[in-house]
Each structure stands twice: as C-alpha cells, then as structure tokens.
Amino acid sequence: MSPPGMLYVTMQPKYGLPPAQFHEWYNNEHGPTRLRLPQIFSNGLRYQATDGKEPAYLAAYDVTSMAQLETETYLTLRANRSPREASTISQVDVKRYFWDLVAKKQSPLFLPIEQLSDEQAEGIVLVAVELGLKEHPNSEQEIQKWYEEEHFDMLSKVPGWLRSRLLKISSLETGVPTTFISLHEYAKENGIGGEQHKAAMSTARHDEILARYGTPKDRRTYSLFYVFGPGPRDLSSLSQLPTAASTFTSADAKTTTTNEFGPVIKSYVTAPDGLSIPYQLEGNPDPNAPTIAFCNSLLTSLHMWDPFVEILRAKRPKYRILRYDTRGRNSVPSPPVPSTLDTVADDLSHLLEALRIPKLDTLLGVSMGGATTLKFALKYPAKLEKFIACDFNAVSSPANTQAWKDRITVAETPLEDGAPGITKLAGVTVERWFHPATMKKTDVVQWMTDMVAANDIEGFRYGCQALWDYDMKDQMNDCKVAGLFVVGEGDGKGALVKAMDGFRALLGQKGAHLAIVPEAGHLPMCEAPGAFWEAVQDSL
C-alpha cells in the first residue's frame, strides 16, 4: 500500500521576475488547481525562508497516497501548463522532491494548518532538517528509532512546539540515495534556541546518530505566509500588476483575472455533490478586508448586482466583494437532486471555506437569495456578522409551490416557432417582478429579460424546488445575527410589504427593521439601485 507523504517544492525567482507576478501566478493558478484534487492533496502551504539562504520560497503539499503522483490525473495537470505558467516558471529555479511519511508526533492541541484561519496560520515556523545516511547497514533503522524513541519526545517539550514528522525520500524517486528530512512546526512564539531545544540536540544518542549513522546535509527555517484553498482569492498580488500582466484566462475558461479597473477574480469551486459554483471576487485587495457577499435571486446571475456593486465600491471601498451564481443557474449535479434551502445555504458555506473566509461582514440576498440569507444566518451564525434579506418570505405556501410547478411547465414547453419556453417565462417573469415605473426603462427590462432567458432550464427545474415547502418562522426567534429586511413597495402589488412586515418582529429578540424602497418591485437593487442604497447604507 502506498504511504502518505509530501510534495515539497523549493523555488527561487530569477532576477527580473516581479514578486507580484510570481505570487499572483502561484496563488491564483498553480496552487488552487492542485487543491481542486482533494483525493491527492489535503493541503497546500507556502513558506518564506527566515534564515537568509536561498531558495527563498517553499511550497509543501501533503499527499494522501504517494502513488497518486503517478496517476494520469496528476501527470496531466503537470503536462498541460498554461502559457502563463510556462512563461513564469521558466523564470524560477524550481526543485521538486517527493517524500514518504515515516513517523510523526503532534501536540494534543495541534490542528491541521488548513483548518486554521489565515490569521491563526500566518507566521507558523517550520524547521526542515535534511539528513543523509552513512555507510552502515543499520543507518536507516537507527535514525528512525532515534526520532521515534527520543528526539520527538524531547522536541515536544520546547515551548510552542506543534508537530514533528520524519519523511524519507520517496520510492517514486528511483536511483536516488536514501535521505531523510524532518519537519518541525512551531507556533509564532516559541522556544527555538532555548534550554529545552538545546537539550534535544545534546543527548548522547543524538551524538551517536550523527557519529555513526547520519550526515547532516541542510537545515532551513521558514515562516508560513499563505495557505491555499481550491478557490483563487489573491486580490492583493493581482492589484499590483499592470493590466497586461494581470489578464489571464484558463484553458477551460472557468478562471479569469484582471486588474484593468481594479482586481477581479472570476473562478469556481466544486460543491461536495460535484456541482460547479461560479463566483466573482473583487473590491478591496487587502486580504484582511471585511467581506460582503451577495445571493442572487432564482433565474438571475451574479451580474444582477452590477448596478448596486458599482455604487457600493464607490461608497464603501473598504469591502472585499463576493458574488456567486446560485445553484440551478447554470446546471445541476449528476444525478439531478432537487435543491432545498439547506442545500443552497451549505453551498455558500462551502464557498467561504474554499476561499478561506472564516466570517462575512455582511450577507445580502434577494428573493430566493433572501430566503437563503436568512437560512444561512440561522444555520451558520458564527460565519456571519449581519445580513440584509430582501423581497422574500419566511414561509412558503401551497399556492406558491404550485406557481413554481406551473412555471416549470412553461419553461420546458417549446414555443410554436421552436424557441425554448424559458424565453416566454422570462418575459412574464420580468413583468411580474418589476414596478410599472421600471417597465418604462427599456434597457433595464431587456437586460433582465435576457438574464432570465439564459438560465439553464434543467437547473431551473431543480433549483426552484428550494422554494417549495419551507418554513423558517419558528426558528427566527433564535436567530443570533442582526438583520435588516428590505422590500420594493410594489412587490406583489404591495402584498410582500405586508407579508414581510408581518414576520419581521419574529427575528431574534428585537425583531428586524423593514425598509421599503419606493418605485421598485421584486428586485429593487436592479430597478432603483440609488434608492436601494439609501435603504441599506446605514447597515453597511
């Protein structure tokens, strides 16, 4: 059986390669591509040397089974480099090592680094000690026994010690002399160089090992500075690049980056059931910037927020902005499974984990996105500071469920001229959504009609079922997250104003304020973005 192990890559950028270009490529293309293969890589970590030696950078990936590195999945990944990757990597001195895990010991308080927040992980110290073998028949066994029987235990007494691992050059590396590397992780504040650490290096057995069995080859010290997730998120490096260098499109066209009018990353993450969820990340490039996320309505895309985001970026430049396409917009998982509010709330949680965003400052959703927002606040309160839920109902009704079933029939029935039925659904839907004043804005009407008509029909069939048979009223009193409710005055010809006013008092201990946007219907942020801003600005 193939052991677990590590892909260990040292890198030294050559003179002339801008640091931002090096980091943006690695953080937004190279690393996430590998983290999208959880069957191979359980994490991806980047370190910078603190000992003044070169190579200055290290990337370490824990591998579930070293045999995975000989599969077509991994080898194809390496062979099919993008032109941007090929160009950049030619400007970096790269050395790649495969290590098999031999032994380990960890603190009872140890947590895998990928489970920590960036704030918790940044600055963790890594000490890497490489040891060759002397010509003695028992060298390999004696070195391993020393680590397991003495050295690990003594290092565990060093303040700040987290974990130690012993790895051996992998069996994948044929024709290479056997070498060990020991990796020792410590908290930012630690006792390296202190009494306990010195004691671990000055035992009789330590001296015997170096005298008879092992030859020290290298000792390096590093500080952790970046943890990969499967979703590209490095706006900071991207923001430092000129437009030409920042513009990138992956071979599958699912990932693009640009800094033409500020840094923007468009990419995707994969839900546990295999569904691809597109997202767009933009705004403040500071990785510690507060993040506001948006949930779109059924049948629309993340671009329904374009007019409002333009205002938000001008009025509140402090925010990092995350938008994504709700399940059902583009496709369905295979085999198809009806959506629920739990499913779509879980999708957002998974997206945040993939982007390593531990907590949102604000979540803003409308219609099904509004229901998703409330469900997320109820289900994941620790991941959310506050929310704004717009034009939604806290409970479904049999009549509403039947209405969605009727709309599915319209969408799936081709028109007499052969056009897909969803084009008819788009027209009647926009007319139902929009306020009479908005219907006079032909450009806005056409924009929204086209957006609705472009929805995946099967995705609509399974996605709209999240709005069937749900009731959140009984849970609302236990909500621990502050919320604002917003509604267009003409939504449902005023019926939704009454409905939301009826359940707003149920939220938490104090209820929720209800803001009403004049001359707007079901999508006030699209119909009257300026008036919508007036309604929500105090919450942002």
UniProtKB/TrEMBL annotation:
Keywords: Hydrolase
GO molecular function, one term: hydrolase activity
Ranges for domain AB hydrolase-1: 290-395
Organism superkingdom: Eukaryota
Pfam families reported in the protein's UniProt record: Abhydrolase_1
Similarity comment: Belongs to the AB hydrolase superfamily.
Name by which UniProt lists this protein: Alpha/Beta hydrolase protein
Organism of derivation: Pseudomassariella vexata
